[in-house]
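Action item from last meeting closed. Structure (297 res):
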């Protein structure tokens, strides 16, 4: 048995989390190709993510559920918008643009978060945040170059919405710092499942009314179940990994998701990022690194 020190163990946990997250675009494409529309696939995944979170909450964390007397509106916002809609936006973006473009734009949340914190939480916005913001604007100009006229607007736009929603979730999470991570995960997955499920029935009724859900193959169901469990596992590994590092160091390791994601897109979908996307991605990584080390997020 290999004995790992704290640094090695933390690095391994974070890299595994980044690896799982980076493989999700592949699974999103797989479910889309096999007849599950974007909002419905998020709703179905969240069913199994919620079951996983609930099992962990009860049997591993051994915590008790309670209804909070305050922060109810903020908890619901974090769950429905920050958790639920973020994934819906991200899923739509992956299905409508290059994986690399979606990933790079999504990671703008690292720059958007301190800006929102300046206005909402009255956090300081130092010169490093400002430099990162400028770099991110240049990156957006590069990333929104039309690589495919019929799809770039939809995919890139929803990736940007996902980044904004993620940033608002992180702001909400700061204000909800007194709640345990396992409790928030149960809340997030439950209301994410409920809200996205209702949204899918309203916006994608044919999938349910015309029997599309009953035509899903056994293998596709297996992938959906594993995807939902993977959602939970990636979060758990990330949370555990952060216990061994300062936030800055851990966040830098998580940037490996971009590298993994682009690599998987190349190996599986043969997607080669165009020069503009590649340069925009480098700027996003640079801006995110500056914020992580110097931005005091």
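Sequence:
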């Amino acid at each position: 048995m290999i004995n790992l020190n704290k640094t090695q163990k933390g690095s391994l946990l974070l890299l595994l989390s980044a690896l799982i997250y980076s493989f999700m675009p592949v699974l999103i494409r797989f479910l889309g190709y096999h007849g599950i529309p974007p909002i419905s696939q998020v709703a179905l995944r969240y069913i199994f993510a919620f079951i996983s979170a609930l099992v962990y909450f009860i049997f591993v964390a051994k915590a008790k559920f309670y209804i909070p007397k305050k922060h109810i509106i903020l908890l619901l916002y974090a769950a429905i918008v920050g958790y639920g809609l973020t994934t819906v936006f991200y899923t739509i973006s992956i299905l409508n643009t290059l994986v690399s473009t979606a990933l790079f734009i999504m990671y703008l949340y690292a720059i958007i978060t301190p800006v929102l914190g300046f206005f909402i939480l009255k956090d300081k916005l130092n010169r490093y945040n400002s430099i990162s913001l400028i770099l991110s604007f240049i990156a957006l100009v590069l990333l929104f170059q039309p690589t495919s006229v019929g799809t770039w607007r939809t995919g890139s736009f929803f990736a940007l919405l996902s980044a904004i929603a993620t940033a608002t979730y992180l702001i909400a999470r700061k204000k909800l710092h007194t709640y345990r991570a396992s409790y928030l995960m149960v809340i997030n997955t439950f209301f994410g499942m409920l809200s996205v499920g209702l949204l899918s029935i309203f916006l994608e009724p044919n999938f349910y009314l015309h029997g599309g859900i009953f035509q899903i193959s056994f293998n596709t169901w297996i992938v959906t179940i594993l995807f939902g469990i993977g959602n939970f596992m990636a979060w758990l590994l990330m949370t555990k990994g952060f216990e061994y590092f300062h936030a800055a160091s851990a966040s830098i390791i998580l940037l490996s998701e971009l590298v993994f994601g682009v690599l998987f897109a190349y190996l599986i979908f043969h997607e080669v990022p165009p020069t503009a996307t590649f340069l925009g991605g480098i700027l996003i990584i640079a801006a995110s690194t500056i914020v992580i080390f110097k931005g005091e997020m």
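Note appended to the action item: The chain has a mean pLDDT of 86.
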